[in-house]
Amino acid sequence: MEDRRLEAHIADRPEFDPPGQVWDFLVTGIIGFACIPFISGNVVLLCNRKYRPIKSKNVNLTVLSSLGGLIWVGSTIVVNGHWRRDRNSIWASCSLWTFWLQTCFGFCLWLNCMNVHLLVLYYIFILKKAAGGMKSNMIRLAGLLLPIIVFCICASAKHVSRIIRNGGVICVFQFLLYLVTTQTQAKDQVVGRSFLSLSISSAVFYYFWARNGGVIYNVIFHKEEYAQKFIADLQRCPSERDSREIFPSSFRDLETELKEAREVINRYHNQIEQLEEEVCTMEQKVSDLQQQVELNCSQAIKESEMSKYLN
Which residues form a coiled coil (predicted)? Predict the structure, then answer.
C-alpha cells in the first residue's frame, strides 16, 4: 500500500514525464539496434578464440565483460522507466533490477572484468610473471565482486531502495547509494532518462569496439594477412633481455642498473689510481737508471783519462 501511494504521488508530480513517449521508444530502438553488431562481434571472438591475434586478448574476460555490459544496459532501460511496468510483475522488483542486475552483475561485472585484464597485463609486462589461467582470473573476479554482492544482500534485506526514495538515507555504501539516488531523480524526465540510457550504452559499446574493432574487422576480411603480420610483428620485437636492457621495466630495475654502473665507475677509478702509482714508480726507476748511467759514464771517463796519463 505504501508503494502504491508513493508511485501515485510520483505520477502526479508535474515534473514527472510518464513512460512510453517518443524519446523512450527512440532511445530503446537505437540501443537495441546497436546491440546487434555488439553481440555479433562477441560471437566472432568466441568462434575465433584460437586465432593468434584474438587469443592474446583474453577472450573469456572480454566476452564476460560484454555480458555484464548487456545486463547493465538492459537493466538501465528497465530501471529508468522507458515503458510502463506492471506493479505485480517481476519488472517492478526494484532490488532485482537496481541492485542485483544493474549494479552487481551489470556495471560491477563489466568494470571488474577490465580490472582483472589490467591486472593480468601488470603481471606479464611489469612483474614478468605468469598471470595464471582462467581459474585464477575467476578467483580475482570473485574477490572484486564480493563486496558489492554483500552490499546487494544487505540492500535487498533492508529495503534500501524504499529508504532512498522516501528519505535519501545514507547506508553502508554511501557512494553507491548516492549514485542510485541521483539517477532516480534524473530519470523523472524523459530527456534525463534518455541521456542516462544512451550514456551507459555508449560507454559499453565504445570500449568494446575501441579494443576489439580492428581485430574483428581483420579476422572477417583479412584473416590470413593479418595473422602473418601479427606473427611478423612479434618476431621483430626485441627479446626480453634486450628490452630489459634498453627499456627498464620498473624503477627497481633502473636503480639496479645505476648501482651497477657506479660500481663499474669505482672499479675503473681504482684501476686508474693503480696505474698512476705504477707510472710514478716507473718514472722513479727511470730517474735512478739515468743517474746510475751518468755516474758510470763519469767513472769510465775518469778511468780512461787516468790510463792515458799513465801511458
Answer: 251-292
**Cβ-based neighbours of 77, under 8 Å, separated by 6 or more:** 28, 31, 197
* Cα-based distances in Å from 75 to 107, 162, 201, 245: 10, 18, 11, 50
From the list 208, 224, 214, the residue with the least C-alpha distance to 51 is: 224
Q: Quote the distance between the C-alpha of residue 245 and its chain's center.
A: 25
Tell me what pLDDT residue 247 has.
43
Mean pLDDT of 264-278: 86
| Per-residue pLDDT, 112 | 94
Lookup result for grid cell 580492428:
214
How far apart, in whole angstroms, are the C-alpha atoms of residue 90 and residue 101? 13
Over residues 175-192, the pLDDT tens digits come to 554 455 455 555 567 777
Using the 8-state DSSP alphabet, how is residue 159 labeled? Answer: T
How does the average pLDDT of the chain come out, rounded? Answer: 78
Task: Say if residue 167 is exposed, middle or buried (CB neighbours under 10 Å; 0-12, 13-18, 19+).
Answer: exposed
